[in-house]
Amino acid sequence: MHADLIMYWIRAAALLISPIAPHFAEHIWTGILKEPTSIQRASWPTPKEPVDPAIIEAGQYMRGTIKMMRDAELSLLKLINKSKGKKTATELPFDPKKEKAVRIYVSTSFPEWQDACVAIIQQVYDPATDKVDDAKVRDLLTQNGMIKDKRVMPFIQAFKVSFSRPSALICSVA
Question: For residue 46, is it within any domain?
């Protein structure tokens, strides 16, 4: 971690806590940050640039992915604890005592079949009603021979959910 980032965070935290705990905030301001004037004369922190909604969405996606992995690990641990003595160590899916590592690859573009799905949704999207006509989507998928692909409908449903939010971003994991 960079020292300037830590000092920026301490400064912002002191400013934000000053209305609630002014004595503590003043101590941090003058004692740790060595500011020459009182915190009462300081202005609130302002962002240097607008927040990028894509970064927020990507962070939410990663938090969800991490939660899903942790939940899966907990489920496996519960399974292992239930089967103590019944299975040998080589039959277990993983050794909980060993270190674990995960590599997450994030694609910068959709695979070809997902691009086709996005194009179909764009064709049938009505901005006036902010709706996607599901019947037309099904017809176009049938015409393109994609209706039997088991990946298509879950992707379209997930895309429509993210599409309906104000700042939509779909991260495709390769």
Answer: no
